[in-house]
Amino acid sequence: MSDVAFDPLIHAPHRLQICAILDTVDKTEFALLRERLDVSESVLSKQVKALEDAGYVKVTKATRAGRVRSWAAFTKAGRAAYRDHVAALRAIVG
Questions:
Q1: Of 30, 35, 51, 91, which cross-links 56 as Cys (Cβ 3.0–4.6 Å)?
Q2: What is the CATH number of the domain that holds 76?
Q3: Considering its fold, how many domains does the chain have in total?
Q4: pLDDT tens across 18-53, in order?
Q5: By residue range, what is the domain housing residue 63?
Q6: What integer pLDDT is reported at residue 59 of this predicted model?
């Protein structure tokens, strides 16, 4: 197998979906992630927290229209880890 890294943290289904979405944008609001994954806020928060603790995702909060909104974005390390993981998956199936 190649030198690219299969990442078990990213591989969990919800986290893999989160990473796939984040790879296509600069940042995204939690509400969009929750809608796309069709999960509860607590499930989403837990999955994003795992990625944040690994240094893969940065979460920011802002108040808009009187409501606190949370945004998630890849860190440079997170985007690299995700792309390496995808490359490892391709190597496995290729």
A1: 51
A2: 1.10.10.10
A3: 1
A4: 999 999 999 999 999 999 999 999 999 999 999 999
A5: 8-93
A6: 97
Residues 6+ apart with CB under 8 A from 15: 9, 47, 50, 51
Cα separation, 31 vs 36, whole angstroms: 9
* Position 60 confidence tier, pLDDT thresholds 50, 70, 90: very high
Q: What are the distances in angstroms from CA 93 to CA 40, 86, 87, 88, 89?
A: 32, 11, 10, 9, 6
Looking at the DSSP assignment, which residues form a beta bridge with residue 57? 74
pLDDT at 1 over 50: no
CB atoms inside a 10 Å sphere around CB 41: 12
Kindly state whether residue 3 falls inside one of the protein's structural domains.
no
Based on its alpha-carbon atoms, the radius of gyration of the chain, rounded to whole angstroms, reads 14
The span from the CA of 37 to the CA of 73, in Å, is 16
